[in-house]
Each structure stands twice: as structure tokens, then as C-alpha cells.
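Hey,
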Amino acid sequence: MTRYQVERNSKKTLLAIFLSLFVVAQVFPLLWVASYSLQKSGDLFGPELFKLPVNPVWNNYVRAWFDGKIPQYLTNTLLVVIPSVTLSTVLSFCIAYACTRMQWKLRPVAWFIITIGLTIPIHTTLLPNFIWYNFFGLIDTRIGLIISYVAFSISFNAIIFSGLLAGLPYSMEESAFLDGAKYRHILPSIIAPMAATGFATVGVQTFLNHWNEFIMANTYLMSEAKRTLPFSIIRFQGQYSSDYAVQFACMTLVALPPLLLYFIFNRWIVAGITAGAVKG
């Protein structure tokens, strides 16, 4: 074996070790929460860093589901997340198309405004938005929260779409224009199917961000009847301050739908990110 082969194998081994440690660091917290959600609260305090439940306490999930008002919070979350994900995905696709494949005078200015949105922290907008929402009667409404979610998602989503759209061929698009097609026909029938991986990437990433968001929901939502899923965990921390097993069960229930969604669309997400990175 030559020196070059030895160095190459050593690099592969080190890379495999690093990736394995990274996977363990990412997966271990999820397994830790899921394991302790099936134990009694008194079993959580001990010298073991991780232990499997000998006698699983499934009643923790029953209490988390009913006492944590998971059905109510889940419904409220879906009523906010589904419209916000749909609007932010469609709008960012249209913006990315206009700034990437169309020629117009103010395109650089529009693209600058879109990209500068990535530099604005959420915390700096809470008070101004709260004042404006209060003026227009949008406090404690789902519409106000949807507007905030869409506004903070468009910049990042448009950049993802632009990297993908920049690599698409112009031939089919030009043929459609020669046949008399308009933009309202070309976008849904030609460009959108070619950018399907981008829709999967943007849609899932936006769903994950909106599903787990708490700061804006806590600022703009006041009534208990409209609060979203993250409030179920806060509810247990106040009402069951010593019953940690039920809190972990609630965390598991809240985290399960995004995990399933990510695993289902994982192939399309990776393909969309890779296409944007290579062609953008």
C-alpha cells in the first residue's frame, strides 16, 4: 500500500468518525427525551446519563394528550401553519422567478430588498409590529401571526428558489412564449413542475420553522383558545413543575409530526438544496 493510499484511508476514517459523532450528537437528545417520557418522574434522577424504560409508563402520553390540550393546540397550529407555508412558498417562488428569469429595470433593487430581509432579527420587529397590529386590530388573530410568518420566510425561500431556477433551461419557456403562452400559464404548467424539488425543500423547511415558532406566537396571541403547540409544553412546566416525565411526553408528541414529515420528504429536500447550491 502506497503512502498516498494510507493517507487517503486515514482521511476517510477520520471523516467517518466525525460524521458518526455528529449523528450521535443529533440523535441522542431525541432518544433521551423519548426514553424518559416512558418512565416515572422519580426515575429521572439518577447517575445514569441514558437508560431504557424497564416498565414503560404509557399513561404519560395520555395525560400529555388530554391535560396538555394537544388536540386544541394542534388545530390552532395547523390553521396558522398551513396558510403561512402555502403563501410563503408561492410568493417566494414568484419573487425568485421575477428576479432570476425576467428582465426589468428595478430587478436589482427588488432583489436587494429581498436579500436584506435576512439581516433583520425577529426581536427588533416585535414591538413595531405589535403597535401596528394593535392599530389595525390584528392582535390575538391568526391573520396577524400568518402575516408575520410569511414576511420572515420570503427572503430565505426566495434565495433557495433562485438557486434552482437559475439552472433551469430556457428552451421550453421560450417555446411556450412563441406559442402565445402567458406567464400565468408558464409558471404553473412548465416552471413549477421543473422546480418540484425546490417546492419540497422550501415547503418542509418553512413548515418546520413555523411549527416550532414561539416568540411571535407568544407576542401576538393572547387568548388560550388560539394558542399553538409550543404553549402545551409551557403549560406543563407551570402546572406540572415536578412531573418531568409528562413534560417529555408532551415534547415527544410535539416533535413527532415534523420528524415524520422530514423523513418522508428527505430525498426531495436534499435534492433541492443540492440543485440550488450547484446551479445557483
